[in-house]
Design a protein that fits this description.
This protein is an alpha+beta fold. The chain is built from 14 helices and 19 strands. 27% of the residues lie in helices and 23% in strands. Strands 12, 13, 14, 15, 16, 17, 18 and 19 form an eight-stranded antiparallel β-sheet that branches. A five-stranded antiparallel β-sheet has the order 5-6-10-8-9. Strand 13 (241-249) and strand 14 (257-265) form a beta hairpin.
Amino acid sequence: MSDLQSLKAAFKGDLVTPDDAGFDQAISRWAKNAARRAAVVAFVKDAEDVSAAITYAKQAGLPIAIRGGGHNPSGTSSIEGGLVIDLSRYLDGARIDPEEKLAHVGGGAIWESVDKAAIEHGLATVGGTVNHVRSFAHILLVLGGGYGWLTGAHGLAVDNLATVVTADGAIRTANASTHADLFWGLRGGGSNFGVVTEFVLRLHPQRRTVFAGAAIFPAAALEPLLDATQAWWTRGPSEREGMIQVFTRGPGPGREPCIVCFIFYNGPEDEGREAFKAFFDLKPAVDSCKDIPYEELNALQNHIASPGQNVYFKGAYQPVPYPRALLARAFARVAALSAPPAPRTTIGLLLEYFPLRAAAAVPDGATAHPRGPAPNALCAVYAHEDGEGAMAYARAAARELAGLFVPRGEESVGYGNYSPDDAPADSGAGSASVDRARVLFGSNYPRMQEVKKKYDPEQLFRKWFVITPAA
């Protein structure tokens, strides 16, 4: 371990190994099943620490994983027997420049910090819909695309990225004029090109309160709810509107099938209730929608996505036009798969309805993230039992439900942030095969191969839709 001792001498942050008291906490993740027993966890303090850790890992022959928030159930932020570069302990700040309307965000910051700091100046940016996601879970947010409640007005998170500071042994600042090829690849390429220690995000004027909350409907309301959704979505909601519908079961002893609608309107309650009048006219069993502080918006789903659970994700794109008959079948399958005697699980089929006009206005090749007209679907299964049997059921259920959205004979991985572990079983947990990367990135893939060849020819960064460097 002499090389590790040399690293310790120059390292400003903390190095944790299996012999240290805090090791179990250092490798824990949002999803219990995503933890891996690393050889070294490096809590970095700055880009120089990141560079030193990468150099050590190369010399020691250790594979690398990057952790911002660990908010990924497939284990892309963990590594068995390797080195984890962890940004969450020290690189967790958010500094707002209100004059330039920019947020300087550490790679380990959580969205809650960004939201609260920015709204103090009447500003906001496109972020995730769960605010305990850390910004380098922007591997699973900004760097992978980034859909959120403000997508209708301001596009994707990648469209609001102005500058990044990366480390891959060298330390670089990338933006539209400096290392422009790297900047292009990072905006959609996830963790394929290095460790982002700082994001500079564009901010936009934002009112202090918004109308938002949950409206819960019983299974008997499914047909009229689908009618209302089809009419609303087909008409084209304004940029101030958004909704996530969840097919699931309610809490309590009965655990009856239901539909939870998380509703958002970027304005006051009277206007919001008018915009969603067709839904409220259906008389939801629960209506918690009201004016709330903006910074609470991205916390609406936090109670569902609490840490310490066994979780499996699988994503897909919803067919276009609105697939009414398919959604009725999907609801029935959610109810069947979550009914006894199935293992104790919580199954949620999330259907995102964020207006995509602003996102689609950006040309497909302008960023590495591919564009399209289809909204996302995500099947999230929470297994309430430990053991492979429960997780095997969770995987099978999620894959069946996501598979309903993919036409027979067509290959699709959906939105990459929602399907990071679509690899064949023998490719390793938390990784995705090269073929899957080619499917995900489509026509952008050859250009991404060139960027990979230039900035990571040794494929040090290979934990998310791995890109093969150009020959």
